[in-house]
Amino acid sequence: MAIPRLLVVEDDTETRSMMTQFLRQNGFIALPAECEQDIQTHLDSGRVDLILLDVMLGDENGVEICARLRADQDVPIILVSALSADHHRMAGYAVGADDYIAKPFNLQLLLARVRAVLQRAHRSASLVYRRRTSTFRFGGWVYDGKRDEVRSPQGFQVALSKRETGLLKVLLANPHIPLTRDEIASALDVTGEGYAIDDGSGRAIDVLVGRLRSKIEDNPKDPRMLRTERGVGYVLAVDVRVEAGL
Fold first, then answer.
1. Would you identify the CATH topology of the domain 133-243?
2. Which of 1, 19, 243, 227 is nearest to 122 (CA)?
3. What is the distance of C-alpha 193 from the center of its chain?
4. Would you give per-residue pLDDT tens digits along the chain (246 residues)?
5. What is the residue extent of each domain of the chain?
6. Rounded Cα–Cα distance for residues 90 and 94 (Å)
7. Crossing angle of helices 181-190/162-173, nearest 10°?
8. d(CA 101, CA 158)
9. Domains 5-125 and 133-243 share a fold
10. Tell me, what's the pLDDT at 73?
């Protein structure tokens, strides 16, 4: 497994050094940067798995830099700032930041947030990769990604809505891995196919899960495949076999 490469963008020398050393001590490759030009240089010269981006960089604005990066980059970005009011956070999320950490912060909290964002990014990348694979077999069912068709164990085609198909793809990409409602919603959103879920309550995900169960479970009230993981969310509790094509 490749060691994650993180870019620490901070114009304060002491803070930048402290963050970089801490991340290196916890198993990451941490690269220091001071400005937008440094960011672009690193992106052009090698892989970057996550950017920790200070909002106030001298004459530069981290929120504006984040917006420009999002125009052509999918790299996860965590904004770091002494500005912690809700409207500052919302401005960061509005331009595509994956998380927002207020200064001063606990280093262990920083580490936890970095790991969480990397994990979400890894799952999303897995989803995008697997969406290109032609055929998934699970619990006797078949999803043909090439034709975008779902067939029952008896061979009958079952019609799914775009959102239901999106949910199924997320589950097929992560068999036996309990997913939170937020992770499911985030994965649906990153596919960019028009079935994003933006209901922060999680109720929309629950309804969507219920609809998918009604179509692929023999007994939707006692599901065998799409199980509820108490205290977490949902899990596809069957093996998935992936085939390159039929």
1. Arc Repressor Mutant, subunit A (1.10.10)
2. 1
3. 15
4. 467 889 999 999 999 999 999 999 998 989 999 999 999 998 887 788 899 999 988 889 999 999 999 887 888 999 998 876 777 788 888 888 888 998 888 899 899 999 988 887 766 555 544 455 568 899 999 999 888 899 999 999 999 998 899 899 888 877 887 888 877 887 775 444 444 455 555 788 999 999 999 999 999 999 999 999 888 889 999 998 877 654
5. 5-125, 133-243
6. 6
7. 110
8. 44
9. no
10. 81
**What is the per-residue pLDDT for 138?**
95
What is the architecture of the domain spanning 5-125?
A: 3-Layer(aba) Sandwich (3.40)
Structure tokens at 217: 């479970």
Cβ proximity of 220 and 213 under 8 Å: yes
135-138: strand order across its sheet: 157-158, 149-151, 141-144, 135-138, 240-243
DSSP 27-91: T-EEEEE-SHHHHHHHHHHS---EEEEESEETTEEHHHHHHHHHTT----EEEEES--SHHHHHH
Instruction: Using DSSP bridges, classify how beta strands 5-9 and 29-33 pair: parallel, antiparallel or unpaired.
Output: parallel
Whole-angstrom Cα distance, residue 213 to residue 216? 5
Task: In whole angstroms, give the CA distance from residue 33 to residue 129.
Answer: 30
Name 189's Cβ contacts closer than 8 Å, sequence gap at least 6. 196, 197, 198
The 10 Å CB-count burial string (b at 16+, else e) for 128-153 is bebeebebbbbbebbbbbeeeebbee
Give CA–CA dist 224/180, Å, rounded: 19
Which pLDDT value is given to residue 224? 95
